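Sat 14:20. Reprocessing the chain from the morning session after the first attempt stalled halfway. Input below, unchanged.
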Amino acid sequence: MRKDWLEKRIENLSKLSGYKKPDKYSNVIKLDSNENYAVDLSFLQDLINQTRETTDVREYPLGGTEKLVVSLSDYVKIPREMIGVGNGSDQIIDLILGNIASRETRILTSEPTFGFFEERCKLYSIPTTKIPFNYKMSLDMEDFLANSKKADILYLDSPNNPTGFQFQRKQLEKLIQSFEGLVIIDEAYVEFADYSIIDLTKKMSNLIVLRTFSKAFGLAGLRIGYFAANKKIVDAFSRVIQYPYPLNTVAIESGVLALKKSKYFTDVTDFVKRERSRIIAKLQEMGVFKVFDSKANFVLFAAGGTSQRIHKALIEQGIVIKKLGRVGNHDGCLRVTVGSQDMNSRFLTAIRDLLN
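Finished this time. Tokens:
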């Protein structure tokens, strides 16, 4: 009986697709995963090397996450009792869904949204309703609000991945105020956007705002995520749900140092915004793509029937971007990360040459 149960469970799990990680290429300009190559690698290497002076990796990181939380509190201007950390925001999402939601919980989100969140809902058999983006690649918030009456949890990534769309602050505030369940706003790309709603966690007890070091800080490989929420949620998460040592010592100390040098990263995000505008303008000038505005560190554009050829030709030239297919009402969508100035220029030149 127990053996049959195990075999059935493994068989059911094997039918799930799981979150698809990007393909790995060698010796290419990598613009497919929204990593931040505008951050100077030597700067990050020096930052990580500095952790050697304050770490002993033979020891468990006792007090480490608490130290990082203090630095995060200063950075986001939120009381430390309202901040939790995790091994990337992915892990935080996973723990929230696995411990707070259930098969009876109804989740409402957008279509498209962050793929990992969707796959985790499938893993835990959580019923999910998705409201599609319209032709302009934005979400009708009134429609979303109307459907929220049937939901227990709302999840929106703002800015959205893969569209780059950021919801209006007033719309989100209205949504959170009118909803009686849990609202999760994923702000992974918020440093590249116009505003954050993390301050609303101080007055809205049903709100969780997710953040990460992977994008603006260029530390995707260290897997540092965090969130802000009311004290009761953070206490239950940090004391009971979260692992005893969710972050390793090097990641903790590197995160603390990065926050001390936040001015550098602010300058980098300003650069990314300028380069993002340049990419959007140049793609629009080519006159063959539907290019969407973005508040993240990437640009989404629809290439229609030419998308496969463009994607393949770019790879042959050593440039990898994300092939998405149909997004919203648009076919042949491609997403390019905003990289260094040289990376961006080589991408734009390659696209121009392909069209000619």
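The domain at 42-261 is CATH 3.40.640.10 (Aspartate Aminotransferase; domain 2).
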